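anyone seen this seq b4? input:
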Amino acid sequence: MIVLGIILALIGYFAGISILTTLGIILVVVGAVLTVLGSMGRAVGGRKTWF
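predicted toks r here
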């Protein structure tokens, strides 16, 4: 999820498409939150790791 967010953010930035940049940033943040929660031992949605 983090990698997809970074890819979308970069494509949006270089192509000048602001919606892709916004979606990419949102995916990076959500992926980081899920990773932190998973590393603390709290399963989110039944999973400790989100790819």
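The CA atoms of residues 9 and 22 lie 7 Å apart. DSSP finds two helices and no strands in the chain. kinda curious what u guys think
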